Amino acid sequence: MAEAQDAHVKLYWLNKSRAQNILWLLEELNVKYDVELFHRSKETMLAPPELSKVHPLGKSPVIEITPPGSTDSIKLAESGFITQYLCDHFPEGQRLIPQNWKEGRENQIAGETEAWMRYQYLLHYVEGSLMPILVMTLIISSLKSPNVPFYVRPITTAAANKVIAMAVFPNAKKHLAMIEQLLETVPDGGSYICGKTLSAADILLSFALIAGEHRFDAMGEWPGGSAKAAHPKVFEYIQRLKQEPGYKRSTDKIRELDGEFEEPAALKKCDLMIQTQQNHPTRRVVCSAPQDAMFAARTICTTCRSRLLAETVAKGASVRHQSTVPAASTFTNSTKTTRSNHDATKRHKHVPTHKPSSATSERIPRGSNDGNAKRRALDLFESTINSARRSESQAEADTQKLHQIARNIDAILHNARENPEEPYAAALYACVVDDILPLLRQSDSGLLPQFAYSKATEALRAVLEVKVNACDDPTLPRASELCGTLAEIGMKTPGRLDPFLGLLNWLIAKTPAEVDAAGSPSVDSALFDQRLLEDLLGCWKGLSLSRHAYKARGLDTRRPTPRNPRNISDPLYNCHVEFPLLVSLDPKKLVVVLATTFVLLSDPRAQSAASTEALEAVKKELKVFVQPFDAARLESHFTANPALWEYVAPRIDWAPLQARIQSKPKQPIEFHSPTKTAHANVKVPTKRISYSAWHKRLSTLFKLNDANGLREAWEELTNPVNDTDRADKLRQCPELFDYVLNQCCSKHGSGGDKFWESFTNQTMYYMNTIGLVPTIRTYTSMMEGWKIAKRLRSVQLLWNQVVESGMELDHHIWSSRISANGALGNPNAGMKVLTEMQAIWEESVANGTQHKAVKPDISSVNAAISGFLRNDRMSSVQDVLAWANSQRIEPDIFTYNKLLGYMLKKGRMEEADNILSSMKNSGINPDSATFTIILETALAEMSMQDPDAQRVTVRRVFAEMATCGLEPNQQTYAKMLHLLVRSGDGAKVPIEAVLSHLRASGLQPSPQICTILFEYYFSRRPRDWDAIRALITDRRSRTRVLTDRIFWETVMRHFHAAGEVRAALEIFYDMDDWGIWPSLSVLEPILRSLTAAREWEEAQKLVTTVRKQARPLSTDPDGRYYKQAFWFVARDCGLMQEEA
Prior knowledge:
mainly alpha; Glutaredoxin; Glutathione S-transferase Yfyf (Class Pi), Chain A, domain 2; 4-stranded mixed beta sheet; 50 helices; 6 strands; globular
């Protein structure tokens, strides 16, 4: 047995075959094994001819076992024989075989245990009796497939249905009935087929049952309406097998090797049979919709659900959503807005030079009253969906190439394990750079399939292992090249920094510094290798390209000073801002790389060996990240790199930036009015502070868990300079304090509990000092926060205090308490609170004090359901619904939608259909939220469908809406597009289908739709400039009647981010013509880019134009309008000269 454990096992695996059973078995046996993958033909579903070289029958599974210390191997075929052999010869196999003999009856006839007899029988039964039924079903069902010519298909379909009804279905019923009986009579009351523990018989039986799980219903009419209803224990057993850790490991293994795993239950046809009661009470209606159109790839397709939804709305009135957006032609007499600050005709119109034609150059004359304007605009809009794309056949060819490249990488790695002395790193790197990267660059999405990404990263890791030990090997790629390749592949692991780190270790180890008598580095030490120094600078250049913070804001230049000095007390702050991904992966490794690079480039040996100008530029950038650290804080990051710390420690000669900043006295900022106006000396009284502005600022700080930023914001909020009325203003904004308390309570348990507790107390204390009394809403906000933090005890304590205070309760705080107990308490806690609420109400009615109590209603029930569903407590949900029924509380549409969304999310389609049926019986009409829930489920599966199936799915979604009496409006189209664009290039075809339907409906594309499409077209690689130009031209034709401020701001942001500052300015001046003023947060990065490029004339024109715009808030020179960053940049650059 011990010798067998060291044997080498190879599995020849075929998709959608019983080889998956053997893979699961190997996982349970805990043996070392390899897997060679084979795939069925997509047309015939037959095994590939290459498998015939493994076994004469060309079938799978087949395993090959090589004993330790031997070159001779044996090959085994047939699942039952393989299972029996492996369990008999490997140590872990003994736990998968039930006990053989009854006690005292060893080696006697009939002395075997019942469990062992079952085990032996099932090993032969599965392959000999059960699987032939399923195979026969597949073969006969193929006579109904689209592969059969359409003119004979009715005949073959009728024949197939007859054979299934006469021969297949009766046998299937017998088999499931027998398995049901076996599960009811398991020895010792176990939950597996042979007893209380998993056995090899369970593993062998799993493929047949999982493959047939969704096929049985298609065979005929079962008692109770479905196979699951007729044999519930069988289907419970199937789900139990699918939750086994070994089964999950086997499926994960295939996903790792092949990029995906498709369960054998995935059908090409949805054969769900629906019983119809009209005219033909016993007639079976078979839906032949493609399986890809099914909402959740489980049991029911869109056509079937359409019938259920149609029946649901049959008892109520149809809900029609009409578009309320008027046609463009109704506004042709709009007053033309003129510009008062500069002559539009004198403007220079810049267009992107590297595109075939400008995105802003095609213009429709303003004020045109062409009667065909609407049709022309729609024609232009439709042109956005007709741009050229790579054909589907090309995409499939690329996928085949990637599979071949993955096999080549496997072969190189296998050879490297067999012959480790032979060089292999260069060959692996060539596979990635010469083969994979060109295909990645051609891809519209800019992403690799998962299997190709896994192989590429595996190859690069192997190259890294060699490179770190031979940085000066000329046959290997340079460290900077490796960094660039890792970034382009999109490797999201700490390994991104390994080439950089390896080069630093090599430089320091191979060029040790001599020390003088005092132990300080000597100036006589050898110089660093200039070639490796250049490589180091290249590494920094590649790393610097991943700095996203300034690009996100649209800035072309980076300041050599910290972006936010107030947060310098957190030395990692600048790293968080500039390298968010790398900090999240491994902040210590990032700090080590930055600090060591800075120190090494400051070393005189480096300055003598390389270009001083290049070194100084890099050091200036690195200084921003390194200077906030003192020696103690820096050392904690070098625990895994002691050799580097030994080099860095004696060379730390900077004072932490924190001390210098904190030593400066805090000076109040003076704000100056940008223009001389009649309002210059008039202070506009303010009754309230801006809730939205403070909410946005505090929300950002809470998301970052920025304690220092919150302290400063709170100080600025509660104790501002030159605002003696702040306390009065804050008393008028209690909702801001409710929000702060909610966020503080929700942060408990996420780290820094002392700070959040202190901040909560500080907020409550300040409310008390200004006379702002907490309301029931305040306490509800705190309870909701603690619910998020999963602090049920805090919820209970606060509840007790509120009750003791005698404060009048409302539905909201009761619902919050019920939901918290349902989600966080024991299974009965939520129900207990609900019954307590009912008891208090009944007592108050008896005492005549019902005005002081709250009567439970459907909102209370929904709160309990929400809490239970959050914790997957469906049995508790059923108890609540039963209680509500006893209290005559009827479910509302929210109840049904909540349950429906949960069932669809979990893939429990049969229960989802039951919910829809219950809605029908209750006379509750599905609303737009119901449709949205189903829509999200449908569209989530669309990225895995082929283009034809995607078009079918879109058509059926709209057909389903029509069946349910829901007419799509602009919001519906926008919601669909929003869901689709998440899939990237995989959404191309369905987006085209939705846009075509929109055009056919006669509705105008809304600003929201255009914004979604613009961001989608702009995010593609390469950018779809033809579609972008057509979209902008369409919006220009209607901007005078549709004030698309958000759309045009989005265009400006993206043009600027792409480096097209002039094109962004062109849009700005057009908006000024139209009387639409973009927000200053959009204009600030554009102004920074102009000043950085020293284009002072353009910068002055931009500032002057904004100053002359009659914006509502510009009349208050001391208001927050002039405290925005745009004006700081303008003043710092001397662009705020007063006009004569």
